[in-house]
Structures are given as structure tokens and as C-alpha cells.
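We emphasize that the prediction below concerns an isolated chain of 527 residues; any contacts that depend on oligomerization or on bound cofactors are therefore not represented. The input was used exactly as deposited, without trimming of termini.
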Amino acid sequence: MPGTTATDQPALLARNRWLALAAPVFGLMIVGLDATILTVALPTLATELEATTTELQWFTDGYTLPFAGLLLPLGVLGDRIGRRLVLIGGLLLFGVGSAMVMAVDSPDGLIVARVVMGAGAAAITPLALGMVPLLFPPSERSKAMAIATAGFALGLPLGPLAGGWLLSNFWWGSIFLINIPVVIVAVLGIILFVPESRDPHAKKLDLMGAALSLVGVSAFVYGVIEVPNAGWSDPTVLVTMIGGLVLLALLLVWLRRASSPLVDLGFFRNARFTWSSVAISAVMFILFGVLFVVPQFLQQVQGKDAMDTGLHLLPMIGALIIGAGVGGRLVGKIGTKIIVTAGMVLWVAGLGLLATVDADTDFTVTGTALAVMGLALGFTMPTTLDAILSSLPADQVGAGSALANSMRQIGASVGVAVLGSSLNSAYRNNIDDDIPAALPPQAQEAVRDNVAGAIQVAEKLPAAQAGSLADTAREAFVAGMSTVSWICAGLAAVTAVVVAVLLPARETRPLVAEPAEAQAKAESTAP
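Result of the prediction step, given as a C-alpha cell string:
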């Protein structure tokens, strides 16, 4: 019914809210899956589509840029015209992008498909998460949020696993076509079980704010994702990063002065929203850093194939499920602060253990580190997102969720940029002195670029030289992975302290409306 919210649907909330939750969870899972599934597919795509290194980069960037840039405008649009409507539109757009690969026979075609999928993901993520506090009472909200965020979080490490299996058994396009049945199920579930909701007091759309947000976020994210390849001093990197920051600064000024701003900056006056957003941004920085280096380590240093690489991420996936369940049950008893702080301490422990891994380390150590980090992810991501969404007014959950997700996406992009640069720098510092001087300049540059290039060069050398160069390259990569691990551990430790000091343990004032059945009960017992 136009203008209604989920709180006007007592029958649905009484009987079907868990079915209503399942539909957006499927949507969130494919968003997470597609964020990482290419980590094991790039070598295959390079061969099948004859893609250059730049085009391979754009297979990822083409998804990330529209995802980051459109999060805030589409979240706000959902509040204005209907969250269910925009969510369904995002899912359908994601499905169309996935289906487009059937006609792809060139890198450019795949890049276009990834752009369409990224735009769809930008609508799915904030609105699927934003529906949780509207559907569930406070007593069930933590459990529901744990399930919803576990869907997204599970998709991230499942990406390499699913991609590895599909590439080992089917055509490369299958890694995208698997999204289509999930999209169909999610759309049908939303139509059947999820009520429409919107802000009944929506103001006119802030087109200037939307434009500044779209261009500013896209420019900044583009700059940071180019850093690992081009370096911090590259003119394009500097212009896009600085230009993006300038536009975002202008956006803040505009939002403070506009009569109908795109999003209410007053959200940041709520300490639970602010410090939970900071914590989830740090978690995404760390998580994408781990998923950036560990698959490369397993494939290029320890010689696993795509399928084995995915299987070796199972300890993280299993521990994530356990951590989300335990955290969801405990948060109501001991509060957000303790759960998130404990999760950040677990990040420190897991990353510290990962930093001790070398090229010949048994998987028992690596697997233990991944399991500890999976527990950390299960404790931190669902709990912080629940704190964020439960602190928002019911009529602005789309905008508030989109704002928090924009911060999260920027954290992930900055993480890959900073940690990718740190990995490259440490790798080159450790291999420069051991590159054979007799190699042609092009081969020397290939060795300096990455461990995969070094191993390819080594395969063309005499046996004695080949073994020495390959071993040196692997050890150099491990040194870089250790550097990345310690940087992430340091960030996790700082975040643990910040959360312990500044994040309120519990919600001080409920801003999300109670579900309709609770209201109906109260009305029925009133004199």
C-alpha cells in the first residue's frame, strides 16, 4: 500500500518475516560473491578473451566503481519511491548484467557487463540490509542482522571457492550465470513476502548532492584502485584522488546548507552509528587486504590450482558462520562494545599468525589463521551493521544504510590500494638485489612486477638459476604478505581501542519503529 512501512504489515511480520529475510539474503550473497569471484578467474579470462593487464584490472574496477558511486543515491531513492521497488530493480539489473556474458566475445563486452552488475549491486546492498530493522523487533533484530550480513560476508570467501569449482568444470561465463537463478528466487521472494516501505515524509530529491556523491566517490575510488599499478605519484592517481576528495568536501558543505539534503549528517551525532561505521570500514579494509594476498599466496607461492585455493578458504567460511551465530546470541546479553572489541582482538591474533607464514609453512598454520579471522569477521560485521541500522530513524534506513555502506566500500577500496602498494613495495625490495643481471630488461621488469611474472621467467632459465629465482620470488612475496598482515593487525588493534572507549555498549534510544504486532498488542491492551 503506498506510503506504508513494514510496521503496517502485522500479518506478514507475525508469520512470514523470516521468509521475507531470506530473499534479500540471497541478493546480498551474490553481491559478496561477485566482489571476489574474479580472484581465481583472471588467468582464465586473460587466455579466453585475450585480455591485457589493463583490461583484467577493469574487469574488477568496472564492478567496483558504479557500486561505490551509486550506493548513496540509490539508497536515498529507495527511501523516496519505495525500498522494495528499487531493490527489485537492482536485482533485475544485476541479473541482466550477469546474462550479458552469454554474448560476450571481447574484454570490452565483459567490462560493460560488470558495470551493469555493479550498478545493480549498489541498489541491492543498502536496501536489503535496511529492511532488517523494519521487519524485526529488537528482540530478534540481532539474530536477523547476523543472518543477513552473514549472507554478504559468506559471499566474499565463497567467491574464490565457487569460481575455482566452476572454472574447473564449466565454461568461464558460468561464474556469472550462476547469479541468474539466485536473482530469480530473490525477486520472487521479495514480491511474495517483503512489504513495500518508503519515507512518508520524503522531500524533493537532492540532485546536486546526488551528483557530487556519484562523481566524488567514483573519482576517489578510481584513484585508489589505480595505486597498486601506477603508484602514488602517478598524475592520474593524484588528480582523481584529490579531485574526488575535493568533491566530497563540497558535498559535505552542500549537505550542511541544503534545505533538502541527500542524506542527514545528523546521523553522525549518534555515537553508535559513527563508531560502528568506523569499525566496519576498518574491517572491510582488513578483509579485502586478506582476500587480496591469501589467494595469491596459495596459488602463486604454494602452487594450488583455482579449485584448491577456494577449498583452502573453507576454514574462514566455517568459522565465519560460527562467529556470526555466537555473536548474534551474545550481543543482547553483553552488548555491542564487548562483541566488537573481542572481534577486533581476534583480527589481531589471526593476522599476527598469518604474518609468521612462509613459503613452505604447513596449511595447519595458515588454516588456523584463516579460521581465527573468520571468527573475527563473524563477531564484527553483523554486530556493527546491526548497531548502525538500529540507530537510524525508520523512514531513513535506506539513506543511512547507503551512507554506512559507502564508507565500507571506500574502506575496502583504500585497503586494496594501500595494502597492494605495500605488498608490491616489500616484494620489490626483497627481490631487486637477486634479479640476474644477464636477463633482458623486459624479463627483469616481469620479475619485479609480481611473483607470477618471476616464475614465468624462471621457467625459461637453466634448472639451477630457475630454482633460485623462483624461490627468491616466493620468499619476496611472503615478506610482502607479512608486511600486509602487520599493517592490518595494527589497524585492528587501534580499532579495538577506539571501539572499547567510544562505542556505546547498547542502544540508548530506539529510533526504529516497533513491529506492527507489538503495536497492535499494545493497542489491544490499552484501556
